[in-house]
Design goal:
Helices cover about 70% and strands about 0% of the residues. It folds into two domains: about 190 residues, no CATH class; about 150 residues. The longest helix has about 45 residues. By secondary structure, it is an all-alpha fold. The two termini are about 45 Å apart. The radius of gyration is 23 Å and the shape is flat.
Amino acid sequence: MTGKGAGAGKEAGAVRAVPWDRAVRIWLYAIAGLVLAMITVGGATRLTDSGLSITEWQPILGAIPPLTEAHWLEAFAKYKEIPEYHFVNKGMSLDAFKAIYWWEWGHRFLGRIIGLALALPLAIFWYAGVMRPGYPLKLLGVGLLVGVQGVIGWYMVKSGLVDRVDVSQYRLALHLTVAFLILALVVWLALELTVPESENTAGRTTARILPLLIIGAIFLQVVIGAFVASLKGGLVYNTWPTMNGALIPHDLWAIEPWWHNPFENPVMAQFIHRLIAYSVVVLVAIEAVRTFTSGASREARGSSALLVAGVLGQAALGIWTLLEAVPLGLGIAHQACAAILLVIAVRHLHVAARKA
């Protein structure tokens, strides 16, 4: 009798695991949406040169913006002490300062919202014991990475407060890459909850190789894209497919020593960005051919087709953005669509591992 009751309880627990998986998955997709919004607002903050408007890091009190004219004047006075004001925005009005302040405040506020939206439900799900084995610690790791990302963000901003009129391109690249990493991890963990725990994906390593390479190439493109953005590389050689008539511009190696060029020469940064984009297109095309000629499942073929559409759309958007010399709307869209493309690539890897 007792054994039967225990067995029935176990079966009931197994049935309840499905809706809880769904609840956790919806929560993770919501977090991914917030991270995508954060990446988008971060792009707008960079393109509007708003990132240095808040010169202090106050993780708790900083959530409250200036509420009175006196508070606004105090924040503006602090901004007037940094090089960006003296060399770029000398004489700007208080209203103009408010415009850049709100972008940076919104970016930081979204970061706080992400932290809370991750921490509070995680604590509830963990306490209730409804998550799959291993998920509490995995999500705790993601939460810690979100916290580290906040520190990296301030580390980046701090680089532009003393001897520069902008932030370090190295720190910007780190900040953007970690944001994309958080997005990829959250999406992957959500996708894993669509698979029964008993499903075995061993022996499908071959099908994962190209999708993994594609994701690696996208991350590399994000890194170089951050250097292009920080160095204003989108404002040089605004032609395509050549760079002002040349396939290889003459000033790729204009900086000495030569190894500084990929990270400090805007021409070299843009050139590398183009090459990686072409490489991603080629890798995705090869993956599409492999998928459609290997007898892969319908889901895998559909996923591959979506990846092709995503990468071609992002490439076209990148070319358009370059030709127009990076206007605000296109620049924001290009960064947001890069994040969306990463999500598509992560999903394709997940599908390929299961359905190839």
